[in-house]
Each structure stands twice: as C-alpha cells, then as structure tokens.
C-alpha cells in the first residue's frame, strides 16, 4: 500500500498530460496481462452438477464438483461423476465415468488430470480415444489437446477399418497421422499379420518401418517373411534387411508348414509391385549371400531377381544352381519354375555343368558358350550346349562298372534323357572326339573351368518360420467404460465391441 500511495503522490506532482499517458499505458499492460493469462489458462466453467463444495485435497484448496458433472471449456466439454477444480492451480481432476468431447475427438477414461494452462491431460484407467475412424485403447495415456499427441505409457490397442495394432507402449501423432510403437508390436487384418519389436508409421502414406525380429504372414501374396528390419509403403515397395528370409507357399492349401514352394534368404531382400490394368506383378530382388531353395531347384549367388508372373529366377555373380545330382555354374543363370518344379534352365557366358553319376561315382562334365536345359515335371529331358561345346562323359558297362569315358568337342552338343538317364547324344558341326580307356587316373579327369561344390548347395531350412507372440485377442484388454458402451449403442449398434459387453461383467462401470 505504501508503494502505491507513493506512486500516486508522484503522479499528482506531474503535469496532467503525463499522468494520463502513464495511466493509459499501465491499463493497456494490465489488460494485456489479464488477456494473456486467460488465454493460457483455458478456463473451464461448470455447466451442471448435483452439488458444489469447498475443501482441500492433499493440502491444496479445491472446489469439489460432485454428481452428474458437466464442465465446459473453450474447446472441450467434459462429463464425469466428480471433479476437483484447484483454486490456486491451473488444474482439474476428474473421477469416474469420464467422457471428454471436442470437435474432432471423443475420449473416455476412469480418471483424468487436466492442466488447463498447457492444455495437457493425464488419462488413467480404461482409456478410449476415438478420432478420424480410429479407436485407441490404453491403460495410461498422456494427451495434449493442442498438438493432438497421445503418449501410451502402458499397453496400446489401435483399431480402424484396415485392422488392429497392439504394442506395449507408443506415441500417436494425430495431426501428422503417424505413430511409433514399442515392445511386442503386432498388426493384423483378415489377410495379413506382422510383428516386431518397434514400429514407425505414417498411416496417410501407408509407409512404415519395423525393427527387431520382424515376422510377417501375407496370405494375399502367399508369402511369409522374417528379418531384422522391414520397410514398406502403399506402392507395394518392401525392403527386408538383416538375415532376410522370404518364403512362398502354394495357394491351394492353408497349411503353410507343408506347402513350401520357395525359400529366398539373403542379407537384403527388396520387392516391388508392377501394377498393370488387369494384373499386378511382384518383383523380388535379393542381394549379398543369396540362397534359394525349392523342392526341385536350389541356387546361390550375389544377386537374384524373381518375378511371380513368370515364376522365373535370375541369378548373377558367383552363381550356382542345383537340380538333383546336377550342378550348373555360370556368371548368369535363369531358371523357370512351374508349379514348384523346375521347367527350364539357361546360363551364359561360359557355363559349366557337372552331373554326378552316383552308380560309378564319376563327375560328367559339359561346358560351352551357352547352356539351356529342359525338364518335364521336374525330370531332366535335354541339355543343349552351343558355341565351343566340350563334353566329358564317363561310361559304364552292363554291370554298372566304370568303363572309360568319351571326350567330345563340337559347335553344338545335345544330350537327351529319359527319367534322368541318358538315352541319346547328338553333336553337330566340326566334331572332334575320342574314347578314353578306363584307368585309375581317369576318375579325376577335369575339363578347364571345372566347378563342383555340393557343400554350397542350400538345403531346406530346418528351423520353422513362426511368430513369437500369441494372436491378437478379439477383445480389448479391459472392460469397456459405461459411457463408451452407451455411445456405441447410439452410433454403431452392430459394433463387434458390443458382443464383448454381453459376456463381460459391467459391475465396474
């Protein structure tokens, strides 16, 4: 008071025009301060309550608003059983059967702490947030109304028209329509299932990244995946890195453990979709330490490409392919599969093929500029080598004992098989051949460029490709709040959620 009186005395001593000027400036500053505080506090008014009492809570003065409470703020309305409005703090606590409505979302919870100055709330208990055709469920959620950011501290379930997501915790950024989830992340719809340790996604662009022990089962594309990292988007692009494993299964059975057709393993597997007017083709690229296995064909290389429209594999660099007792080595190999069986092989330039005759334990060899091979339901029918063809084939007598070999050079050599056994051979052009009599050294004879590496041949993976986590439950992990049930009955009486209500006890509502 003495401070104010002394200033008034000084103003009286000033000329009148200066006094008016100082008062005007002071009033403007005071009004600006009041306006700023009002804006910052987001004041909430009481619309309805059974009774209002004064009191204290944990040593703070509060206004107790009790029974059928209806509060209203600038951008929200709140309904609850009771609420405490702090007298000296920008804080409201609400309890029991809470519903918060804004223009763009609805929220239900058991308890709420609302900090009016920063427009921030702590939602606890059975938390449900519905916005933009998306419903989120959690036990403990921090939510800022101004930025539309929800932090799920303890378990999260997200549902929309595209499916269901569950995780241990996460953030949902509503304005950006993006999210990040951590711990036992699972996504499922009627055709696809995906799981990992963490997920970062933008739902508008349908782009997501998943980290850590990724597993996926895609019935739509008849495939399963596993790896350390997965990146995908709405264009059909998919990048799988770190111990990448792609497994295809046949479409005529749901038993994916028995219906294997092809396994691709590599450090990196990248797939993309080429969408045409009437069809969509999936192209799969694999890089670094590529290993391919199917029931009648296997291969290794540095790089491979697979097209599901043609069922063709292309393999480059250090490439080798195997079919039964035959190994093919070449810079480029192309294999065509039909119904899980190999249909044809092609390799150039300078391929080298070895066939192990197990009855005499000899390695038949053929090489040239280009090699093609044809099959019938997985059985070898013909090998055709043209351009500088060179054949070394071991012979045997009527008792299946070694009986020398033939060494033939020609521009063009064809070998015909029946049920895998040689039945005819044809060489055309300038043929240069000789018969080599049997001796001890003949078994080790090799053509230049010889390559035989059965130890590198991929085998069918012994470990099963399977999920780590149990299936996503149909029911939410808590009993639905009473006001949320009433909302569903009014807006969506056929909601599957109401079937949960019929079997759950409502005593806690």
Report on this structure:
- With 509 residues, the protein is mainly β.
- Among the domains are: 2-41; 198-456, Sandwich (lipopolysaccharide transport protein A fold).
- Helices cover 11% and strands 58% of the residues.
- It contains 4 helices and 30 strands.
- The protein has helices spanning 2-13, 16-41, 482-491, 497-503; strands at 45-48, 51-57, 60-72, 77-86, 91-101, 106-115, 120-131, 134-144, 149-152, 156-160, 163-167, 169-173, 178-188, 192-202, 207-218, 223-232, 238-249, 260-275, 280-294, 297-307, 312-323, 326-338, 341-348, 352-357, 362-367, 370-376, 379-396, 402-418, 421-428, 432-436.
- The chain has a 30-stranded antiparallel sheet that branches.
- Strand 2 (51-57) and strand 3 (60-72) form a beta hairpin.
- It starts with a helix and ends in a 6-residue tail after the last helix.
- The model is unreliable at 1-12, 17-41, 252-258 and 505-509 (pLDDT under 50).
Beta content = over 45%
* Rounded Rg: 38 Å
Under CATH, the topology of the domain at 198-456 can be stated as: lipopolysaccharide transport protein A fold
Fourth-tier CATH superfamily name of the domain at 198-456: Lipopolysaccharide (LPS) transport protein A like domain
Q: So what's the CATH class of the domain at 198-456? A: Mainly Beta
Overall pLDDT: 86
Per DSSP E runs of 2 or more residues, the count of β-strands stands at 30
Sheet of most strands: 30 strands, antiparallel
Helix vs. strand class: mainly beta
For the termini, the CA-CA separation is: 55 Å
Q: Tell me roughly what share of residues is in helical segments.
A: 10-25%
Shape field: rod-shaped
Show unreliable segments.
1-12, 17-41, 252-258, 505-509
CATH architectural name of the domain at 198-456: Sandwich
The number of helical elements comes to 4
């Amino acid at each position: 008071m003495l401070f104010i009186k002394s200033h008034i005395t000084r103003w009286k001593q000033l000329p009148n025009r200066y006094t008016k000027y100082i008062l005007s400036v002071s009033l403007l500053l005071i009004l600006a301060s009041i306006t700023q505080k009002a804006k910052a506090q987001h004041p909430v008014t009481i619309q309805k309550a059974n009774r209002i009492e004064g009191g204290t809570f944990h040593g703070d003065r509060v206004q107790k608003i009790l029974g059928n409470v209806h509060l209203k703020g600038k951008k929200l309305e709140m309904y609850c059983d009771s609420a405490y409005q702090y007298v000296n703090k920008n804080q409201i606590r609400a309890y029991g059967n809470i519903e918060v409505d804004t223009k763009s979302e609805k929220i239900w919870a058991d308890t709420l702490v609302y900090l009016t100055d920063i427009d921030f709330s702590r939602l606890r208990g059975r938390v449900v947030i519905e916005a933009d055709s998306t419903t989120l469920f959690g036990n403990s959620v921090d939510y800022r109304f101004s930025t539309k950011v929800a932090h799920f501290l303890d378990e999260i379930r997200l549902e929309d028209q595209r499916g269901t997501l569950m995780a241990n915790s996460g953030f949902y950024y509503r304005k950006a329509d993006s999210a990040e989830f951590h711990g036992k992340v699972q996504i499922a719809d009627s055709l696809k299932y995906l799981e990992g340790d963490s997920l970062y996604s933008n739902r508008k662009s349908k782009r997501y990244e998943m980290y850590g022990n990724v597993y996926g089962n895609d019935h739509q594309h008849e495939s399963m995946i596993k790896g350390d990292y997965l990146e995908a988007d709405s264009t059909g692009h998919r990048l799988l890195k770190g111990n990448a494993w792609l497994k295809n299964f046949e479409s005529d059975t749901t038993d994916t453990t028995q219906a294997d057709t092809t396994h691709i393993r590599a450090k990196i597997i990248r797939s993309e979709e080429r969408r045409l007017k009437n069809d969509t083709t999936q192209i799969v690229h694999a890089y670094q330490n590529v290993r391919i296995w199917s029931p009648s064909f296997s291969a290794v290389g540095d790089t491979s490409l697979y097209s599901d429209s043609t069922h063709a594999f292309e393999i480059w660099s250090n490439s080798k392919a195997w079919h039964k007792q035959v190994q093919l080595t070449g810079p480029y190999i192309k294999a065509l599969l039909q119904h899980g069986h190999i249909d044809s092989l092609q390799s150039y330039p300078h391929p080298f093929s070895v066939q192990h005759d197990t009855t005499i334990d000899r390695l038949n060899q053929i090489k040239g500029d280009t090699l093609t091979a044809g099959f019938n339901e997985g059985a070898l029918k013909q090998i055709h080598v043209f351009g500088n063809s060179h054949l070394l084939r071991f012979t045997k007598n009527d008792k299946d004992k070694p009986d020398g070999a033939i060494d033939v050079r020609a521009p063009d050599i064809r070998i015909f098989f029946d049920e895998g056994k040689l039945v005819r051979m044809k060489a055309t052009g300038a043929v240069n051949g000789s018969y080599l009599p049997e001796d001890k050294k003949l078994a080790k004879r090799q053509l230049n460029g010889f390559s035989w590496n059965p130890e590198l041949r991929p085998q069918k993976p012994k470990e099963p490709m399977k999920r780590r986590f149990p299936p996503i439950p149909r029911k939410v992990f808590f009993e639905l709040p009473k006001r949320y049930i009433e909302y569903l009955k009014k807006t969506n009486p056929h909601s599957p959620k109401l079937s949960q209500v019929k079997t759950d006890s409502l005593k806690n509502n």
